[in-house]
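Changelog-linked ticket: pyridoxal-5'-phosphate example.
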Amino acid sequence: MAFSGTGTIWMNGTLVEWKDATIHIASHVIHYGSGVFEGARVYSTPKGSAILRLDAHISRLLASAKINRMDSPYTQQQLEQAVVSTVQANGFKACYIRPLIYRGYNTLGVNPLPCPVDVAIMVWEWGTYLGADALEKGVDVCVSSWNRMAPNTFPSLAKTTGNYANASLIRMEAETNGYAEGIALDTFGYVSEGSGENIFVVRNGALHTPPLSASILPGITREMVMQVAQDLGYRVTQENIPREMLYIADEVFFVGTAVEITPVRSVDRIKVGTGRRGPITEAIQRRFLGTISGEFPDTHAWLTYVPESVAAPTR
Ligand SMILES: Cc1ncc(COP(=O)(O)O)c(C=O)c1O
């Protein structure tokens, strides 16, 4: 979906007009992918707009910066407040949030350390990521011919812009071959994740998801889904998943800020279970979406409400 090109963007402490939020072509991040970012969402609830897991997203952003030897000029609290102010300034009831810490303009050696650490926060309206029907009907996906990065190459625990060169290859290949998304394996051949989402497999009533060591991003939705599954009484394990488990699973679903909880109805044209959203996927979806829309109580304090006027956020 194309941008509307309006609204304001927070850049190094100042809200600037969308069209003025530009950086120099010689900025380090453009050439070497030396940025770290987040993707979070604001939901409209009966009690007002609320940001889902703001604290967790900013804390992962700062962890990604630390792994990349970037000292953030802003603290966790300052960044949380900046996100709230940007959402307020743009007046969206529901939207997507993209904070970014990146190496800016100074020199263009590969070493980023001489370059400044700049920070920006964008917000925009972004609907369902894998199509309007995806949440209910599910998506057809393939196992990618591209692997996720090997251990000790690109740090998968960091949400680094450069890592998304790999994600783009996975996604382009899938779409070119007529699939909604690709599932990448790690370099040992175990299931890792989708190009922009984590994955769960259901078999015989229990849920399984790859461990952090399978080259995955430590997804915040993944963590919430494990909690919801436990709250509903399902057993969840984090373990290596062989590729063929995808073909014999009763249910498979993707989780992430963009896809929320999206059922997978086929992998490599092999039907998953009955080929439609399974009952456990549906139960978890219902509780998860019900919690973030305010239908169920927010027992784990996942929502940060955005006051309509400029004021401190409440959790
Ligand atoms: C590669 C990758 N894996 C998993 C996820 C899911 O993470 P989260 O649930 O924190 O959005 C994302 C999205 O940020 C991602 O880009």
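Closing comment: Example verified and attached. The mean pLDDT is 95. The pocket of pyridoxal-5'-phosphate is lined by residues 39, 167, 193, 196-198, 217, 219-222, 256-257 (CB under 6 Å).
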